[in-house]
Amino acid sequence: MLSPQTVPKTKPYRRQAHEKIFDLAAGDLAPWETGHPLLDEPLPHRYTWRFTAYGGLYPLAAVSETLVKAFGQDTREERPSEGDTALFALTIDADGCLVENGATLSACAWALGKLTSAEPAPEALDGFDDVERAFSSEMDGLVPPDRRATDEEPDGSTTPGPFDRIVRAFGQRLKSAGMDAWSAGAEAAGTAVKTVAETAVGPVVGDVAGAAAGAFTESVLGPGDDGEDGEESGSATETPSTPRLLVTASALHAFVDEMAAALGVRDSLGARGVRIRCQAVPNRDDSADQTFLNSHIADDLNHVAAAVAADDVGPALRDYLTDERSIGTAHRIDVRTNPDAVIAAVEPQHIPAGRWPGDPAKPLVLSQQFAVNRVLAELRDNPGIFSVNGPPGTGKTTLLRDVVAGIVVDRANRLAELGSPAEGFTDRIELVPVGPKKYQIPVHGVSSALSGFEIVLATATNDAAKNVSAEVPGVDAVRGYAEEALGADYFAELASHVLDSDAWGLVSATLGNLQYRNTFAKRFWWADYKSTQNQDGTKGMYEMLKEAEDDPDSAQDWETAVAEFRRARAEVERLANTRQRAAESITAVAACRRQWEEARRAFADADALCALVRDDLAAGNVEVTRADGVFRDADGDYESHLRHRPGLWVSLATWFRAPREWQAKHEQLEEARDAAKKRLRDAETSRDQFQQRLNVKTAERQKAEEARAAASYELDRALGEVTRARENWPGHLPIPDDFAGDEEFQKCAPWADEEYVTARNRLFLQALRLHRAFVLRSGPRLRNNLSVMTEILQGNVRPSPAARLAAWQSLFLVVPMVSTTFASLPRLFTGLGRESLGWLLVDEAGQATPQQVVGGLWRCQRAVVVGDPQQLEPIVALPDSAQHALRRHHRVDEEWTPETTSAQGVADRLTRHGTALPVQDGDEQVWVGAPLRVHRRCDRPMFDVSNDIAYGGTLMVYATRHDGEFPGENRWIDVQSATSEGHWIEDEGDALTDLFVRLSDQRIALDDVRVISPFRDVVTGAKKRLRAQIGPDFAKHNVGTVHTVQGKESDVIVLVLGGDPRRHGARQWAASRPNLLNVAVSRAKRRFYVIGNRKLWKDLRYFDRLAGAFPAHEWE
Predict the structure, then answer these.
(1) Are residue 346 and residue 285 in the same domain, yes or no?
(2) How many other C-beta atoms are found inside a 10 Å radius of the C-beta of residue 1072?
């Protein structure tokens, strides 16, 4: 509501230009009035003029000033405030009649009136939808009856609520009042309209819609040519004269005054004047022009909010809207601290079969391939969202191209399952009337097997969307493989005609706003739109399809196309399987090494134990021998003593002393013998036990030895496989130990040897050939669907949602990807509901507010969000004080404030694989999605400054390679000056012109130089200087704010700092975050020049690192 759109700038009036924009003074002749020179200019056949009147112009800067007064000071130094907006806009046809649904009331002007009329409060802004509907209905009451559409419900409308019914009744009564004007005169009509407004809707709406538009009715309706002041001519029986429309310049200016007063902004905004936009449009274009004054997405957000409240939402958007406190962190995997997770994810079994057909010598590096693999692995069969963090120069577009290739091949797999292209379509949905004669064209459904592969690329700006979608089909996108890509002949000639430059294939389309849609539709379908590429009579898609129907042999037969695709797929699978075995061997090496080490330790333990037991056995044998000797001696002594037992006579002779002594000795010897015998038996038992234990341990040792040998064999086998893999695919095995540190490892292109990469290239091209065969052999069903689709793009038909979806799906079958801005997305996909499309690719998501992507997420099943929160932030015109006031009123958490986060930041929270980066303030860290790490754009020291100030000095890896020397030296041109005009410093302008003299002397091509600044005042001054020094084209295209260069690069970047020396806050704003300087320095490939007061800037945060890297050069 408070972020109005600008009205178009005036253009010098040129005859025969099909668009003219000029300011209309109160006394001027309107361009639709007889006598205006515009009406004498020739137009193309079947074209007419369409006008848009922008009334009550006021500068965007006035919006911020008013909001600051209402809500408090803004902390941001500069916000987008260039250009003018308007109180209202009216669409007028060639006869000067208002066009139905062509009136727009400025939400911003209405809101500012509310905020300045009383004590400012966010709740005062409730109710604009009611006012807007009433205003539009009232102005529609002034449309001539024969130029009105029937009052049918719009597609997808819901049961009207109480106020809707009031507004509808109000609109009908207004139309009746307008009808009365054609028979009763202007004054009565004006009174009737005013009365209806005030009584049917009430004072809130009536104040604006009734009082102002009622007065306008009186001013634009007048008597017919038959008489004056409504008097009749002729007989009394004749009907009253028909009044004629008098939409004059003076009437429009009067309406401006009435509207400014009714809205309460006459003094605060100073709205005045009328601007007219004249456009040549087809005669049959009876729809209102796209007159954007209000937020492009506000209505769509309301629509999606209602759907979410009704639980009509898919996983992608539901996940996106998850509250920060509900997001767990335990599942996160930091790819920088867990390299094994990355290595496992880039195995050939996870690499998509198809690849973008680029130079086989320049494959994706580790982090890029990891991101592509994870995107398709996680989202191919499941809805959801995946974020990729892409620092500058790390190949975001390259990554997106490979994602597109993977999706196209996946759909080709489905196509290959069809018995014939006819199986790709289902029953007829409806007949759609097309053209002036309302030919009934049947629309057929598209098989569900072929749906879900639609790709929508969405960005915040037209330039960003066009950059990617125009780059993808361009020949440069297949450099190194262009001959083969052109050989695939995926409608290359038509693609060049559509793109208006050399293209290799019809793989994307730039849609979005009405101009882009019209251009594409006409070039694509009929090839009859002005194009430098249509010099030899390019055939449009319609003609190609008709020729294929008339002569089926002119297109490749379906069976052959399927067979060739399957052969290409089988070859990729064969090569992938070979490499997968090697990947498994790499994984196995570590496991085998662990197993071998375990087996080695087990054998060593068993061998040591065997030795111990063997020693015990030896000791046991010794003991047996000793015990046996002792026993033998004891037994000998015992036996000898037994033989010498005294007889009777000796006993008698010794008085039995001898027998007693013998007996005592006998018992002693017997005891000694028994003891020796027991010792022997014990020794023999112990020896036998040792022997048994030795036998067991020997068996265990043998088993351990066999296990060690087996583990050694497996290790040798795995090492051999890896060795052969290293020999076959040197440098492409993701083994960290093969590289000199992590930085070199990050540059590895896993499994991307030329043979495999080339096979994947061929498969993608074969997939496109299969798509071409499908397109040319689908017959009337696809042709009819595409015919309706081109009418949808031009706004000529409004089929049912089901027919509209089938038409879109048919276009995506031919053109895999279309691009749009977030602003144009809701209108582009009008009538398409929840998850009706397959893939949403969000590029430069760091520049998008969290709210901008909601409509795309709701309509798509899967989303890949690519960007960098450390580069440019979302452009928000609303002061932060107003943002927070509105947020608090609507009870929204601060995490959703556009000032503090982006769509990228919201998506990053959800992605499992990512990394933690340090936060600039404090010791905390922030989680970002899967990071791209290898930088290939900037020379040093630009790379180092970017990496240090935004990524902790460790995220990006330097891999820039530029051939040859480049003239000049990086430096900071120190300009000391105490005077300025705003932020423009004339002395810095002198230094800039001197620098360009030096660059010219060094023979540096000026097309390779860009001049940027944080401040618009500096840009204005620099453009003036360089326009005079070099020329208007350079000033227009090569000079701008830092915000204009994200996504671009140049050999030389000149950063003119400027900054009012008396306003320290401006410099503090530029240095409050690393984003601005990060973008500035990372645009420069070879040289970076800073022009500015080094003393004032060098101690500021981030700029101190810049000062340390770039030597000072005093300017004189």
Answers:
(1) no
(2) 17
* Separation between Cα atoms, residue 867 and residue 371, nearest integer Å: 13
For 1073-1082, what is each residue's pLDDT tens digit? Answer: 898 999 999 9
pLDDT beyond 50 at 236: no
Strand partners, 918: 925
Amino acid at 925: Q
Q: CB of 450 within 8 A of CB of 424?
A: yes
Tokens of 141: 């009451």
Contact indicator for 845, 904 with CB cutoff of 8 Å: yes
Amino acid at 288: A
pTM of the complete model: 0.84
Check whether residue 674 and residue 819 sit in a common domain.
Answer: no
Residue 446 sits in the same domain as residue 323: yes
Q: Which of 296, 365, 272, 343 is nearest to 86 (CA)?
A: 272
**What mean pLDDT do residues 877-893 have?**
68
Q: Are residues 106 and 219 in the same domain?
A: yes
Whole-number Å distance between alpha carbons of 545 and 811:
13
Of 931, 965, 992, which marks where a domain is finished?
Answer: 931
- Verify that 109 and 195 share a domain, yes or no: yes
**pLDDT digit string (tens) for 257-313?**
888 888 888 888 888 999 999 988 877 655 544 556 777 788 888 899 999 999 999
Q: What is the pLDDT of residue 291?
A: 57
Look up residue 819 and give its two tokens: 């691009």
The answer to whether position 630 is within a domain reads yes
Instruction: Inform me whether the pLDDT recorded for 819 exceeds 90.
Output: yes
Cβ–Cβ < 8 Å for 1001, 968: no
Number of domains in the chain: 4
In a domain, 553, yes or no: no
Q: Report the run of H or E that residue 102 belongs to, with start and end.
A: strand 98-105
Q: Tell me, what amino acid is at 136?
A: S
**Over 70: is that where the pLDDT of 213 sits?**
no
Q: Is-contact 960 922, C-beta < 8 A?
A: no
CATH of the domain at 572: 1.10.287.950
My answer on whether 105 and 45 are in the same domain is yes
Min mean pLDDT across 162-171, 902-911, 971-980 is at 162-171
In a domain, 554, yes or no: no
**H helices then E strands: how many in the chain?**
38, 26
Tell the burial category of 1100 from Cβ atoms under 10 Å away from its Cβ (0-12, 13-18, 19+): middle
Strands (E), 420-472: 425-434, 439-446, 455-459
- Alpha carbons 894 and 905: distance in angstroms, whole number: 13
CA 300 vs CA 87, 982, 1079: distances in Å: 22, 39, 31
In angstroms, what CA-CA distances link 705 with 607, 611, 715, 971? 9, 15, 15, 69
> 419 lies in which domain range?
315-543+751-931
Q: Which pLDDT tens digit goes with each residue over 1026-1071?
A: 999 999 999 888 999 988 876 788 999 999 999 888 888 888 888 8
The sign of the torsion formed by the CA atoms of 797, 801, 802, 804 equals positive
CATH of the domain at 1107: 3.40.50.300
Q: Which two tokens stand for residue 431?
A: 């007949």
Amino acid identity of 366? L
Half-sphere exposure of residue 333: CA atoms within 13 angstroms, side-chain side: 14
389 in Cβ contact with 410 (< 8 Å): no
β-pairing verdict for 817-821 and 455-459: parallel
First-last CA distance in the chain: 49
**pLDDT tens-digit series, residues 586-600:** 888 888 888 989 999
Tokens representing 1074? 């690393």
Is 445 found in the same domain as 390? yes
* Cα(908)–Cα(920) distance, integer angstroms: 18
Has residue 950 got a pLDDT over 70? Answer: yes
Judge if 978 and 1050 occupy the same domain: yes
Q: Is residue 596 part of a domain?
A: yes
Q: What are phi and psi of 1021, to 5 degrees?
A: -65, -40
